[in-house]
Amino acid sequence: MRTYKLTAFEQTGKQILDETFTAETDVEARGKGEALLEEKELTKQTHRLASPTGKLILFHS
């Protein structure tokens, strides 16, 4: 399992979400990240999901 980091921000730059979770693949991590954003109603906020190697899996500004 690999550890991924999901963060979301307000327009002012204030961080409003900082979650880590594990997944087997980048595809699985993307699905988990999207589900977390939907659950917390943050899909329209600036967000990013990074892999353990620093690769951006999800990004929205």
Automatic annotation (TrEMBL):
It holds the Pfam family YhzD. It comes from the Bacteria. This is YhzD-like protein.
